[in-house]
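ok trying again, last paste got cut off:
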Amino acid sequence: MGETQEVQHSHETSFTIHMGESQEVQLSKIANGAQETNSLEGNNFRGPMNETMKSKKKLYYRWFRIAIHSALVLVTSSAAVLLGRLYYEKGGKSKWMGTLVQLGGFPILLPYYLITAPKNLTTNNSSHPNQPSASMLAFVYVSIGLLLALDCYLYSVGLWYLPVSTYSLICSSQLAFNALFSYFLNSLKFTPYIVNSLILLTISSTLLVFQNESSSDDSDSTQISKKKYVIGFICTVGASAGYGLWLSLTQLVFKKVMKGETFQVVMDMIIYTSLVATCVTVVGLFASGEWNGLTNEMNEYELGKASYVLNLTFTATLWQLFTISCFGLIREVSSLFSNAISALGVPIVPILAVIFFHDKMHGIKAISMVLAIWGIISYVYQQYIDDTTSENTVNSHVAKPSVPEEEVHR
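nice, full thing came through this time. structure:
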């Protein structure tokens, strides 16, 4: 019986092995097909996952750069405005000198510019063969430089006549002007949040027209001071409009003329436009005769000669850092976003002005500040929505697996 069972068992085993050999080819084909399918699926999903991770890293790194530029814009603009007001408070009288310190600090960038220029120049020529002509570049630099000189002079006049807190709140209107110019020059789309921001910022600046009359009871305001207030208000609004136009034109030049926003292009724009604007300001300083009074101005400065020189030096340096940061935000996002970040300093400067210059925060001025902050937050939220939407769109295109044509036909 044991032998019989062994024979039967061996027959069953041989039968099983025989059946396995007959299906071996088919099973191996199925296995190979499964491996190919798995490899295809792995390629289809591994690639999009890597692309998604790369896109997220680029997004995080981009927002890190935006955060650095934004912090520099807020700190440098607030400090420069306060130092500019301190110059007038302690004995400074030259409006052209107040303009010159906003523009004349660009030579501090020349060493770094000259070191990096040859490398970037060869790169730009190879990557962008269709460079604008020399005459076109000269026209762009001269025109924008002239606009910049006029704009800075209007800012200087406004800061001379107005309290620094009022001046800062009026400057928030530059965001509305920038949006208006960007609509015509850069095809900006008006969304409900942007429209809400523009309306609030316009109301915020308009309320300040009544600020001087409301504070006339507790201040020795005369008809002359009211005239100066009106002049300062008009000049500051004009400067805000000019600044918004300057940012929009700069963004338009980067896209249409320069056809690129490399570091070299940005540095060229800063250096050459600042050079033109500085030359115009120096001519105005000599032509106005204010140059003759600078020596007496320095000698009679309340904080001393050293403080006078340090004030002008630090103001010029801060404005240059502010300009670089603004250009960085224009490259990363847009001119309107750069303007919105600079307008975030609206609540900072009035508070510091109350502390250091004892400016009075009346009811109208407080309401104006609240409206300005609300309008700025409204725009920044719209920017957040735009970035989130674009990120989701990119991820949906990247993560979509490719389907073979055979699978589609099946």
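cool. Residues 1-25, 120-127, 213-223, 401-410 have pLDDT under 50 and may be disordered. The chain has one domain: 65-116+135-214+222-388.
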